[in-house]
């Protein structure tokens, strides 16, 4: 990659973020675009988590011994029961630790 390309991409990213974060710039997005942006965080989180849960390097993790999958399902279930993000994250970490180092040790 050339330095010019890196510099150009840095300027583009900075300008995109500056427009939305600068309070003096009055940018009003259409209602449909605002509704669509509500889904960006869950989509990004899904795109980041799915490969970690289901793939180990270049191969598919076995479903029956996949501690990542069971911990993710436990975390989702805990969140649906409690509706408290911090509690579900902490209990999800604990469930992953117990599954990974306790139940599914080789």
TrEMBL record:
Pfam families in the cross-refs: AzlD (PF05437)
InterPro entries in the record: Brnchd-chn_aa_trnsp_AzlD
Transmembrane parts of this sequence: 37-55, 67-100
Assigned keywords, A-Z: Membrane, Transmembrane, Transmembrane helix
Protein name from the UniProt record: Branched-chain amino acid transporter
Native species: Acinetobacter rudis CIP 110305
């Amino acid at each position: 990659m050339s330095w010019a390309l890196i510099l150009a991409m840095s300027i583009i990213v900075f300008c995109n973020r500056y427009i939305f974060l600068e309070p003096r710039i009055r940018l009003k997005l259409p209602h449909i675009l605002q509704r669509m942006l509500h889904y960006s965080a869950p989509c990004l989180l899904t795109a980041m988590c799915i490969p970690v849960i289901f793939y180990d390097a270049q191969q598919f993790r076995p479903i029956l011994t996949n501690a990542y999958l069971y911990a993710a399902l436990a975390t989702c279930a805990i969140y649906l029961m409690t509706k408290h993000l911090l509690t579900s994250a902490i209990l999800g970490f604990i469930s992953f630790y117990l599954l990974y180092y306790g139940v599914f040790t080789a």
